């Protein structure tokens, strides 16, 4: 059993407490931490957590219980100080994305995890779905030959879908697009080189900052991805992972993933479309632990065995996904000017 302390019991943290942690075998919860007494009272009342397992601070919890892992489920601005403290106390850590607010903070946490010989994992839960795993394998096998170009579209209407963070800086690029950027790196197995991005805030939008954007992203293999995304689209919505078209020399692969909303869930879809043949839907292999359950089950196994699986979203690996976010924000602030990834990750 991996003994764990959860830090952050707000709305999203409570979702982890209720919907994720109990469904992953091998996790023994030995502590729940939140500075807000109402938050700890909620897990005690609704989830029947023993009050003796609830603490006001991680330091307090660390003195009272023995643990292997900290599950950090806080707002972005709190990630850096909490993850830093957890690593300094000798814990392994899984943290929500983005795992830091700046590249300097992220690199510091990666270096600290290495110095402490601890595992730092970023919960990039979109990696743990049947479609991106299958497509990553097709790409590795060069199913339809070399890639010509890739396009990704994301469309959602936040005002009618329960979104609450209207004042969040960069609600598209930092809060949503990091999922898509991380999937680009995983599925295509490439690293970004430079980006050009424009964002905007349409008239009548409830957002304080830009919820809509478009970007060109160039990778080290020469692949260029065309990316379009909106939190205020009134057209047909896409699943959360977006709709992807990977155009290759002998055909294209179309796929989408994570079509979840309001308690309803549709399966991932992958279509193989050979240039001179009939489109074929791929029968996708089921995943034992998908989405957030997948990230938590993975870190538990890593802590237990010490072995890193393929496509593991370590803090070190995630630096380039975070760099893509920072570079697109920088480009948008410069009215679409090309920004090198090296500039933001130096």
UniProtKB/TrEMBL annotation:
Source taxon at top rank: Bacteria
InterPro entries given in the database record: Gfo/Idh/MocA-like_OxRdtase_N (IPR000683), Gfo/Idh/MocA_oxidoreduct (IPR051317), GFO_IDH_MocA-like_dom (IPR055170), NAD(P)-bd_dom_sf (IPR036291)
GFO/IDH/MocA-like oxidoreductase domain boundaries: 135-253
Any Pfam family hit: GFO_IDH_MocA_C3
GO MF annotations in UniProt: nucleotide binding
Record-annotated Gfo/Idh/MocA-like oxidoreductase N-terminal domain positions: 7-123
Annotated protein name in UniProt: Oxidoreductase
């Amino acid at each position: 059993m991996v003994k764990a302390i959860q830090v952050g019991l707000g709305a999203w943290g409570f979702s982890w407490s209720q919907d994720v942690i109990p469904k992953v075998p091998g996790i023994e919860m030995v502590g729940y931490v939140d500075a807000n007494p109402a938050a700890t009272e909620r897990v005690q009342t609704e989830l029947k957590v023993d009050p003796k397992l609830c603490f006001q601070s991680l330091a307090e919890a660390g003195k009272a219980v023995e643990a292997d892992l900290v599950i950090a489920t806080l707002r972005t601005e709190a990630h850096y100080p909490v993850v830093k403290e957890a690593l300094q106390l000798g814990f392994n850590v899984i943290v929500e994305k983005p795992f830091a607010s700046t590249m300097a903070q992220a690199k510091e946490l990666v270096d600290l995890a290495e110095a402490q010989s601890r595992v730092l994992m970023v919960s990039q839960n979109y990696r743990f779905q049947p479609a991106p795993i299958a497509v990553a394998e097709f790409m590795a096998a060069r199913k339809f030959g070399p890639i010509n170009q890739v396009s990704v579209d994301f469309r959602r209407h936040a005002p009618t879908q329960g979104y609450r963070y209207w004042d969040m800086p960069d609600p598209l690029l930092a809060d949503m697009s990091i999922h898509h950027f991380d999937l680009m790196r995983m599925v295509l197995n490439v690293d970004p080189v430079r980006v050009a991005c424009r964002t905007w805030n349409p008239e009548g939008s409830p957002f304080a900052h830009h919820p809509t954007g478009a970007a060109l992203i160039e990778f080290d293999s020469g692949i260029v991805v065309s990316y379009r995304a909106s939190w205020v689209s009134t057209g047909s919505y896409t699943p959360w992972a977006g709709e992807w078209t990977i155009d290759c020399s002998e055909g294209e692969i179309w796929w989408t993933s994570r079509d979840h909303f309001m308690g309803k869930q549709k399966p991932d879809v992958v279509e193989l479309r050979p240039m001179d043949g009939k489109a074929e839907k791929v029968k996708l292999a089921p995943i034992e632990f998908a989405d957030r359950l997948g990230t938590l089950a993975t870190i538990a196994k890593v802590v237990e065995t010490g072995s890193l699986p393929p496509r593991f979203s370590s803090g070190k690996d995630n630096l380039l996904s975070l760099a893509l976010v920072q570079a697109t924000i920088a480009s948008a602030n410069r009215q679409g000017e090309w920004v090198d990834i090296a500039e933001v990750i130096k």
